[in-house]
Amino acid sequence: MKIDATQPLEYGTEENRNRIFGFWLFLGAEIALFATLFTVYFVLVNRYASGPSGAEIFELTPVLLETFLLLTSSFTIGLAIHAMRLGLKKQTMMFIVITLLLGAAFLGIEIYEFFTYVHEGLTLSTSAFASSLFTLLGTHGAHVAFGLLWGSVILIQLKKHGLDHSTANKSFIFSLYWHFLDVVWIFIFSFVYLKGLM
Amino acid sequence: MKWDEFFVTGDPLIYGAMVSIVLVSLAILFGLTYYKKWGYLWREWLTTVDHKKIGVMYIICALLMLFRGGVDALLMRAQTAAPEMKFLDAQHYNEIFTTHGVIMILFMAMPFIFGLMNVIVPLQIGARDVAFPKLNAISFWLFFAGAMLFNISFIIGGSPDAGWSAYFPLASIEFSPTVGNNYYSLSLQISGIGTLLTGVNFIVTILKMRAPGMTLMRMPMFTWSVLITCLIIIFAFPVLTIALLLMMFDRLFGSQFFTMANGGMDMLWANLFWVWGHPEVYIVILPAFGIFSEIISTFARKNLYGYTSMVMSMVVISALSFLVWAHHFYTMGQGAMVNGFFSITTMAIAVPTGVKIFNWLFTLHKGRISFTTPMLYSLAFIPIFTIGGVTGVMLAMASADYQYHNTMFLVAHFHYVLIPGAVFAVIAGFHYWFPKVFGFRLNERLGKMAFWFIAISFNVTFFPMFFLGLQGMTRRTYTYSEETGFGPLNLLSMIGAIGLAIGFILLVYNIYWSTRYQPRDKTGDPWDARALEWSTPSPVPVYNFAVTPKVKGRDAFWFAKKNNEPLSDEKITKIHMPSNTGKPFVLGVAFFFLGFFLVFSWWTPSIIAGIAVLIILATMSFERDHGYYIPAEEIVQTEQKLRGDTV
After folding, report:
1. For A135-158, what is the mean pLDDT?
2. Closest-CA distance of chain B to residue A160, Å
3. Which of A9, A45, A66, B185 could form a cystine bridge with B248, CB 3.0-4.6 A?
4. Where would you find the membrane-spanning parts of this chain (chain B) (predicted)?
């Protein structure tokens, strides 16, 4: 393993650089994936049949709260990487923990939202609009949930091994993933909720 | 669910298949135990991360699937060989044309191409392995899990029966109530993840791991084609994943995406499917173009004519491939403007493809051509593929397409494109690179016999279908009356299909015969070829290159040979290698069970299998394995042994 000391830890070996580049490509595929889901949603958004439409069930308060939580978590994962670059293990871990807690709170509100929708008569099988809404939000939510598990696994490794080429690389890639989820959410917030509320 | 619903019952053909599956499985288990090969199988194959072995496993699977899909094809031809045949019933016929399509495209053509690119691409760019060897193993085992899941459908639960394009509302739970289309959705999702990861892996490999001096415009054409193919994969496969996910939700959880009520839109499926489906055609065709470019240049003893235009045409094809999808359903009422747009984009694809055809012809021009088996396939490809291409332009004209939409004309067209394009290419590549992997060539006489059988029988099988289509025979009809007059041409087609079967049996026999009797090749370069893969000894040692070659131009190995210069003057040093791991295999098994339980909507087992998948992924993350080193002395010894002391 050739180590390049002029680079930050996460870029330090050829394998690390390849991993980061490969993950960017994977995010390219994720963009195609969410783009497809958004397309499906836009095609079906006005096909709410006899069920409620978006304007009838969307509420701004919980969604705004979700947005606030997720955007803050994107900031804290940025701080975690900043701390990692400074070589501060404890601070890195702390900011990842905060990120995950914010993510969990986001997920909690989203699940609560889903319950409200169902309560108001909007289930997966109510209409094409409902199916596409639940699938788009659900896919994003599932990504967040997977991120929570992934982040916890990385935390354990940071605790065990400290900051080295392997753990720094994993933390950095995780931060890319987390920022990406944030970007997707901004699109959901703008084009699903805000547009739906209009 | 009762047991008689679980297993498919009532058809002697299926019972025969069940018996043969049980017998073959028992024979394999017995053979492995008797010859004490379990350890060998586990150590050398199931846990391997070596790109060459993974490639070989892909190709073995592809050959098995070629056999399976071929039997489907023979059954279809037998059923339609004469009017009013009673050989298969309508349901069974539906299942067979569906599985034939899915298997040939996704479980035969794609893995065959993946196999060749796994074996060859790292060698062509002078790399020790792919960028992520472990991920490569995961890709293979996910593909394998998907393929097995799809194949058990015809004895457990019933095969998908709504065509390989699975159009809604036919494929919905309302009109296809068996679990068949659940198999379709889940097996393709699982193998699709593997495909996507392969795409990522090979882009990183090709862009980041080339030998020093190999700029992008010095790469061999096959590597170029794989790079562009992988880019298509990254943008096309997520669309399929989503389409299949929505299909699964509609069928398992009662969502309303493609239904006929509550706002569902069946045409949404057709659009999503073909947004992936048309690029998919180029995912199998572009690497084929790369293979032909390698072979034609090698056996014409000339460098490839128009290298830059070859690359440019592939880039243009890959971009256009995303802009033509609606030509698959001109007749479904999207209006003249839309049809006009897609007509033009479709015909535009003929331009870059034509450029490639002329480049191959100019490469052949004034070349010293040797007619080896791989070269014969490549030469036959050019005229046959051109017929496929020209009929494609006929189909591209929306107004004319109303005449032959969904007829046998279409079936003839896409077989005229895919068989010379994809199948001839992989067989040619198989013959061409076989000595690199196994250290001996396949027998030329048997190879040529198989070629003539396949090439002639192919035309006998599919050329009549053009006329059947123009006479109005629709595709996917399981029988027809005598008055239609379709009988004689269908019979001719059946005769051709038998010839094709003989050709493929000869091909397999050739593998057996050559393994036993062909002389071994000591040079590593039996064809006097051009690219870097031929500079290694055959079979290629696990570390590929003893020293990393230095590349000074295109066809690096050829010019090193002509100028008598070594590819590298560095000394042999220790080489870092990744260690084997069994986890990708275990992950494949877990995914297989996850898919299987979901097919039957058994929720508790599904959740357990899902958790197992997550746990395996977590243990993979915890693994801290930095591989091992092969010492320099060992490499020197291996090289001397393989090259017969010349180094």
Report:
1. 97
2. 10
3. B185
4. 12-35, 56-76, 96-123, 135-156, 186-209, 221-249, 269-292, 304-328, 340-362, 374-398, 410-434, 446-469, 489-512, 584-600
| Tally of CB atoms within 10 A around B448 | 16
How far off is chain B from A5, nearest CA to CA, in Å? 19
B286-341 tens-digit pLDDT: 999 999 999 999 999 999 999 999 999 999 999 999 999 999 999 988 889 999 99
Enter the ipTM.
0.95
Residue B495 near residue B464 (C-beta atoms within 8 A): no
Flag if A135 and B255 touch (Cβ within 8 Å): yes
Q: What spatial distance separates the first Cα and last Cα of chain A, rounded to whole Å?
A: 56
Contact at CB, B242 and A36, closer than 8 angstroms: yes
Most B CBs within 10 A among A47, A50, A125, A126, hence the mutation to make, goes to A125
Q: Do A29 and B234 touch (CB under 8 A)?
A: yes
For chain A, list the domains and their CATH numbers: 9-45+66-197 (1.20.120.80)
Give how far Cα B463 sits from Cα of B308, B385, B455, B494, Å: 35, 13, 12, 12
Per-residue DSSP letters for A69-101? HHHHHHHHHHHHHHHHHTT-HHHHHHHHHHHHH
Strand partners, B628: B577
Domain boundaries, chain B: 1-285
Contacts of B244 in chain A (CB under 8 A): none
Q: How far is residue B118 from each of residues B112, B154, B163, B441, measured CA to CA in Å? A: 10, 30, 30, 20
Q: Measure CB to CB from residue A128 to each of B236, B256, B622 and give the nearest one.
A: B256
> At the top level of CATH, which class does the domain B1-285 belong to?
mainly alpha
The verdict on a CB contact (< 8 Å) between B264 and A36 is no
